[in-house]
Amino acid sequence: MLQRVLLSVVLVPLLCAAVQIECCNGLFFLLFVLSLSVLSARELYALFAGIIVPHRVKWWPCCLPQVGLILLYYLNSFFMTKYLGILYIAGYTCAAQVVCGAFFCPGRKAGERAALSVLGYVYTGLFPLALFAVRAAYGPPYVYLLLLLGWISDAAAYLVGTRYGRRRGIIRWSPQKSLEGYIAAFCITIALAVAIGFLFTEHFGPGIWQTAILGFAIALTAPAGDIVESVLKRKAGKKDSSGFLPGFGGVLDIFDSILLSAPVYVLLLSVL
Predict the structure, then answer these.
(1) What are 137-176's pLDDT values in tens digits?
(2) Does 123 share its domain with 25?
(3) Do 113 and 224 have their domain in common?
(4) Beta carbons within 8 Å of 136's beta carbon, 6+ residues apart
(5) Which of 5, 25, 73, 78 has the most CB atoms around its CB within 10 Å?
């Protein structure tokens, strides 16, 4: 717990600074998202290797398509080359996936490598890109809302489940999680979203009803992100995705809920 507190004291202000500082269309937040993509790709492909091919694999070539995607999106938004940029990104995506899937991804068969390549690209490329798109299109307050609600959902499920959980084993791949924890996390996440919409209406467009819908979506997707990672870790025989962050585990252990919530979150924002 002491390690977690000390690390949070250092990392949370750095993250807030990256979100808040306006410099070259969010350059500092871009660097954070790139780091998130690379580190989560490193952990994800290590889990893949533990499941499919039980030996070490070169992970860094596998994350190059994701890094290129995020950089292309940033340059596209920076230079305002909207339609031409979309064509470049689409062409790059196809070419990078073919190369990555054929030569670098773990797997015994071409089909396995292609599937893992696409899954890794989506999970550690498109999902972090959605997080960057939230800031680019809607501003820092919406990034804070996503991060806060996602982490509160995780913390509430853990704390309530640990103290009051009786019905455990409802999720086969995460037997320690309890029904009481999930229900509490769902209610607390939505209630916090409504409270934020009421207290900070000037920062969130339509206000309470918008943040309530966003909170509802995160209350559903954040636990799903945790379950997806639990499945991968259990199949790979690991307790944490890595030991990169002492006291927390790996980057995926912290951002699993955020990554899965981000694309749903940004899609909802586009229609609200």
Answers:
(1) 899 999 999 999 999 998 888 888 877 767 776 666 666 7
(2) yes
(3) no
(4) 25, 26, 77
(5) 73
